[in-house]
């Protein structure tokens, strides 16, 4: 093989390796929203 073909293959391999190698999975956090209103509670007949 000629040196140009080897250099192009090496450059392509390094580019593909650097594009795919550094990625990390992103952590997903799900937070339950707080209720907007609270439920009424029994406080007695005349309170």
In short:
This is Lipoprotein. It comes from Roseivivax sediminis. The chain is mainly alpha-helical and 47 residues long.
Please give a handful of descriptors for the protein shown.
47 residues; mainly alpha
Q: Could you explain how this protein is built, in words?
A:
The structure is a single chain. This protein has 1 helix and no strands. The radius of gyration is 31 Å and the shape is rod-shaped. It is an all-alpha fold and 47 residues long. It has one helix at 3-21.
Mean pLDDT rating = 81
Biggest sheet overview: none
Question: What order do the helices and strands follow?
Answer: H
Instruction: List the total number of helices.
Output: 1
Radius of gyration: 31 Å
Which of globular, elongated, flat, extended, rod-shaped describes the shape? rod-shaped
Helix content: 40-55%
| Count of β-strands | 0
- pLDDT < 50 runs, ≥5 residues: none
